[in-house]
Amino acid sequence: MRPVADGDQTRSDPAKEASREASSFVGRRRELAAARKILSRGRLLTLTGTGGVGKTRLALRIADSLRGAYKDGVHVIELSLLETGDLLVPTVAAGMGLRDEGPDATALLVDYLSDKRMLLVLDNCEHLLQDCARLVDRILRGAPRVRILVTSRQILGVYGEQVLAVPSLAVPDPAGPPREIARHDSVRLFADRAASVWPGFAVDARNAESVARLAQRLEGIPLAIELAAVRLRTLRLDGLMRELDDFLEVPAPGRAVTLPRHRTLRATMDWSYRLCSPAEQRLWARLSLFPGGVDLDTAEAVCGGDGIAAEVFDLIAGLVDKSVLVGERCDDGMRYRMLECIRAYGGERLQPDEDRAMRRRYVRHYHALVGGNRVDELVPEQLDRYRLLQREQPNVRAALELALSEPGMGAAALETAGTMWSFSLPSGSLTEGRYWLERSLERSPEPCAARATALWVDSMLALRQGDVASAMPRLAESQAFAADTGDERLLPYVVRIAGIAAYVAGDARRGLELLEESIALHRAVDDTAGVALDLYFAATYGSVHAPERAAALGEELLALCEARRAALSRGYAQLSLGIAAWSLDDRERAESLVREAAAFTAQINDRWCLTQCLEVLAWIACAGGEHARAAWVLGAAHALWQAVDSSPTRLWYHATWHERCVEQSRQVLGDRDFTTAFRDGARHGLDRAVIHAISA
Asked: Which residues, 6+ apart, have CB-to-CB distance to 690 below 8 Å?
């Protein structure tokens, strides 16, 4: 894999990317020192500069250098993948591992941050400027020890904001001594990138003047330098200089009033574009539709044909060679991404007719992908499906936005949003799930099965967030459609949500009756996925008032998950059966089940299941006389309950046992020792808490 450009970029895991790329970072000592000084005194720093100048790379370097200064960590949130500011807060919350369980995502986020000492990096804010400004202002007011680092082409305009302009890299005088030329950052960057395509390349007395002229010609813009450097794969340095002299005189179409630096970068991208074959140019334009990057199979399915006769793999290889695409290795192969300004340039190259056709192909592809990868289905590849949808989430968002704006695509939006619940629920992205559902429902008001499905899904997510006022009208409309049409596949889902609503209202007997009715209805239509989720809800909610029945349902769910090798659902089955076993005073079985579930859910970062596992393990420790351990694990669980915006007292099957555990441990230890152990558990990070809780 070649080095990543020293310019703005997108990343699947920004925090890991910062660490991994630190060794290839070039220059910026002055800016690094200035940024560290500003953040040591102030709370908000915005890095500004033109596209391609390296704001993202600098922000990642700053974040990496300050990682040890913040006990609650450094969190980097990439915002270029967002198309709308409505999803800003849920995205930032999710980036910090918060489950979106409450109806007010901003309040959840600010409350979580209120006692944290951390650095929050918001990367690429310019297209969401007002939304970012409002959020940053709320965080600064409500979280006094959080510092924020922003990258944007424009300032936020928030009180207390300090601005550091990120200039182009320093360029040398071509007439200077070769050793002096080689020390300039722009020359060092060119040499680094050139060496990746021309092994052994170095700046010396023979080429120093030419490299200095090239850096000067490109005005020290990092992205422009990289795009030029890769041409050394096929050109000598003097040939590269001649090409640059030709192309950099070409004015940007329709942009005569832009700044010279903008024109230089634009002309460099024009140059790269013209060096591509017609098929590569067309693929560049088509791939600009994918904000979250693309794998080879998807590129072939969506972008192949209709003017692209060559093998898509060969075209992708050509675009990687020209630094138009960045290849990244993921779990199941390679994924290809564009820097944001290169993606925007490619989007401008889509002709209107081709643009409309590609949008429809894109929407249809992701409609099929979501429908074919339901996470609730009990299949061996269940966890792989979950991870696939995590990777593809930015592209699914883009597909939903396109479907909602394209004539005749409303049904695809409704069906996609309605199916994504099986990802939204375990991932905790409830606000985002409801956002797309409600926009799709507004766009498609006519009664139909897809609308009825979206209604019960929205009702379920609203109940999980405690928004009963919104949930019940949605449920009533879905119930009416099911009754009027006699839809046998829809009815059990509606009955399930009615059962959950009954539990929320405090009617446990009615809640269990409805959930068991839903199980029977799902079985009648051979809907195994529906049966499994009903079993989970019935086993957990029923564990308090009907523990024997809950245990039987939990055993059935676990056996079903194991028979189908559904790893994600198996963790929840172990949790529900563990709670039922605890209620039946089978501590040994409960502990075995819940420890295994905790270890698995920690590995996949499912904090909702993990939080509940820690809670149960605290009860078990207390019952075994390990009161200091119980207090410590209660503290660790408390930190996670905060992260998921919930509380054991809000869940039917946790409240009573939680209160007993706290009371008994506090009585044995005394207030002082209990509080000390509790606070120590809450203070430690996720990994330490899990290791302590599940170790023998």
From this structure: 598, 599, 602, 610, 614, 636
